[in-house]
Amino acid sequence: MITNNVKGFRDIEASKKIAIRNIIENTFRLYNFKPVETPMIEYEEFVKGENLGDDAVSDIFRLEDKGKRKLALRYEFTFQLKRLSQNKKLPYRRYQIGQVFRDEPITGNRWREFTQCDVDVVGSSFQDEAEILKISSDILKKLKINFTININNRKLLNEILDEVGISEKNRGKALREIDKLDKLPEKDVKENLKKFDAEKILSVFKKPEKYFEKYKNYQEIKELKKTCKLFGVNVNFQAFLVRGLSYYNGSIFEVKSKMNEIKKTIIKETIAAGGSYLINGIQSTGISFGLDRLELLTKLDSKIKQVLVISLNQDKKAIELADRIRKLGISCSIFYGKPGKALDYANSYQIPFVIFLGNEEVKKKKIKIKDMVSGKEKLVNWQDLEREIN
Questions:
Q1: Does 15-297 match 306-389 in CATH topology?
Q2: For residues 188 and 216, what is the distance between their CA atoms, to the nearest angstrom?
Q3: Which residues are within 8 A (CB) of 56 and not within 5 positions of it... i.e. 6 or more apart?
């Protein structure tokens, strides 16, 4: 029997991931977003939508059921908003955290199954866009990740392409190449743009921000920056920011870890991204976090308080003590067996405290607690237990 993981999929120890997820979810709720869950499997036609040229759409996992229906695994959550937002009072504010799937090459920190955390507003304004970026800022500060937020606008990009004279046929391809400017050497991007007769556009994107003020749609950049300031969020204009999904129709944003952290963690990719788009003809906005990448970047200490109670023929008292410890909000389990094996067990699962409970401890109405890091042991009163563990 083959028990190996399928290529691109993995088993993980999830304690840190759960701690990060809790921070993200609690922050979403603080801003009054409502949680939803949607099916992982949808009709292939619905998953693909109108975005057939997008790389992510071409990477969907395709399935077929016994009824020969063409199905697919979801590759993101946004398309499902078309169904979720129907007949909802606007603005409709929802968040979703769950697994998404892409049948794409595996490189570095990219997997074919990963956890995405989305927050969206259907029926949005500039204030909602700025608030989405404030939520992003709050989350990353709580996770102790240094970051920068870059913004651009698809209308501005189209205006520039019109001025330079890039044909409608080559526009999408040219934009995808421009989006690689912070990932590939400029000469490589220029060579790729030559295929679409679009290399002349490079000189525009190297101009300082002041240059772009002449464009009509730069006003939306100006408005978003002004609104972000009200929320206390710093954003940077990045003229060549495109984002790969074609459904964006206005503001686009990308959150990256700062260069020193990128070097330390070998992450050269975006940790959150989003923008504005239409859902059922209604202007909307949202952002998506890659939870797996956040896990690699965060300096968050996700260790939880844990205790192992070792019952030395005092099962009843051990069960009572474990219940008491859990009521303090501390994780606790009981080991019924030899102390040596119990200590090995505690070490293997990095449980920081063990409590010995035998005849002597019961007689003295005390408990013996051992700090597994320092190796120190002491007898303490039951009522002093919480203080000792903390």
A1: no
A2: 31
A3: 75, 76, 102, 244, 245
113, 291 Cβ separation under 8 angstroms? no
Looking at domain 306-389, which CATH architecture does it have?
3-Layer(aba) Sandwich (3.40)
pLDDT one-digit tens code per residue, 311-321: 999 999 999 99
Among the four given CATH numbers 1.10.3720.10, 2.60.120.620, 3.30.750.24, 3.30.930.10, the one describing domain 15-297: 3.30.930.10
Q: Taking the C-alpha atoms of 20, 117, 137 and 94 in order, what is their torsion angle to the nearest 10 degrees?
A: -120
Q: Measuring CA to CA, which residue among 358, 351, 360, 353 is closest to residue 376?
A: 353
Q: pLDDT averaged over the chain?
A: 88
| Single pTM value for the model | 0.86
Q: Is the pLDDT of residue 265 over 50?
A: no
Question: In this predicted model, which residue has the larger pLDDT, 202 or 314?
Answer: 314
- The domain ranges of the chain are 15-297, 306-389
Q: What is the DSSP letter of 306?
A: E
| CB-based contact 290:116 (threshold 8 Å) | yes
